[in-house]
């Protein structure tokens, strides 16, 4: 597992919506916007499955995911890759379900996707682009 630095954590936390990429076992890519996202500590991301279809199917057969987040203000951008676990019960699931539902009772909060961060890359345009930072 890999920990985000404080400056990267700040940009992550500011970001409202993140594209979440997955791939099927045979390598067909998929990307979908996600907003029910929370950074837990400095090495774990929680995403609530409210309306995932292909994303969830892909994670069941290929548990690796990638996200990116971009800060308009500083123009900095980072890609995060991680290994996922799908939780439909237990204290973590219940905690995030209750949190998500305080934002909107309509959210089905079907499962919690736990992402353990394995890699972080810079995607800010320029000389640092593509570099592994963590
Ligand atoms: C701004 C925005 C935020 C979204 N946030 C979430 C989310 O946090 N969780 C979720 O399950 N779906 C979320 N959705 C809906 C999914 O992106 C949508 O259901 C999409 O079809 C999922 O992709 P998939 O069908 O390829 O799995 C969001 C959609 C938008 C436009």
TrEMBL record:
InterPro entries according to UniProt: Pyridox_Oxase_N (IPR011576), Split_barrel_FMN-bd (IPR012349)
Where does the record place the Pyridoxamine 5'-phosphate oxidase N-terminal domain? 5-121
Q: Which PANTHER family match?
A: 5'-PHOSPHATE OXIDASE PUTATIVE DOMAIN-CONTAINING PROTEIN-RELATED
Instruction: Output this protein's name.
Output: Pyridoxamine 5-phosphate oxidase
Q: Which organism is it from?
A: Methanoculleus methanifontis
């Amino acid at each position: 597992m890999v920990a985000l630095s404080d400056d990267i954590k700040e940009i992550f936390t500011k970001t409202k919506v993140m594209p979440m990429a997955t791939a099927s076992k045979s390598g067909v890519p998929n990307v979908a916007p996600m907003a029910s996202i929370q950074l837990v500590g400095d090495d774990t991301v929680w995403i609530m499955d409210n309306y995932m279809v292909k994303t969830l199917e892909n994670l069941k057969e290929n548990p690796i995911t990638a996200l990116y987040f971009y800060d308009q203000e500083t123009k900095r951008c980072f890609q995060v890759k991680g290994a996922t676990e799908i939780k439909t019960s237990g204290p973590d699931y219940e905690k995030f379900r209750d949190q998500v539902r305080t934002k909107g009772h309509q959210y089905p909060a079907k499962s919690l996707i736990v992402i353990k961060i394995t890699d972080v890359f810079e995607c800010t345009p320029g000389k640092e682009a593509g570099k592994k930072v963590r």
